[in-house]
Amino acid sequence: MERTLVILKPDTVQRKLIGRIIQRFEDKGFKIVGMKMIWIDRDLATKHYEAHVNKPFFNSLLEFITSLPVVVMVLEGTDVVEQVRKMVGSTDCRKAEVGTIRFDFGLSIQNNLVHASESIQDAEREIKIFFKEEELFSYDPYKPLSTV
Ligand code: CMP
Which of the residues 40, 115, 117, 131 is marked catalytic? Predict the structure, then answer.
């Protein structure tokens, strides 16, 4: 089953939007198979954002992403990489489509609340950066539970 990496960035944590954003992914039908709060350091941020190291905004991005803890999670589901990117919206919140997370909650290009893997290959690489195999769970959410 396809998986993607989502990061709820420092602005999501600061603005207490963690629950509302996770709710959207659950409502859509995606399964959370791994989740934790971590404080990203500069080395980890450089590894994750390796494609952007030569961009003019890289230093600012590094400052931002290391400024507060973040929530990292792995979502699983059909076509999850593309569907989550659609739910998140364009990088620049002001250009994001109406109804996307970035449109609904943001106004900035850098402080855009959420990171979501761009492709299946990126997702595989990024998940390995943030999660050990034993931190990801296979489970059947429809399994009947004991009611005792
Ligand atoms: P993300 O989808 O995590 O991928 C790279 C991040 O860099 C992006 O979200 C933004 O947080 C940030 N970013 C992208 N473009 C710019 C820009 N022009 N100026 C500042 N930050 C940017």
Answer: 115
Domain positions in the chain are 2-39+69-135
pLDDT band at residue 91 under the 50/70/90 scheme: very high
Q: Of the CATH numbers 3.90.1150.10, 3.30.70.141, 3.30.450.20, 3.10.450.50, which one belongs to the domain with range 2-39+69-135?
A: 3.30.70.141
Q: Which residues form the pocket of ligand 1, taking CB atoms under 6 Å from any ligand atom?
A: 52, 57, 60-61, 91, 109-110, 112, 115
- pTM given for the model: 0.97
Count of alpha carbons within 13 Å of 108, Cβ hemisphere only?
11
What kind and span of H or E run contains 128? helix 120-130
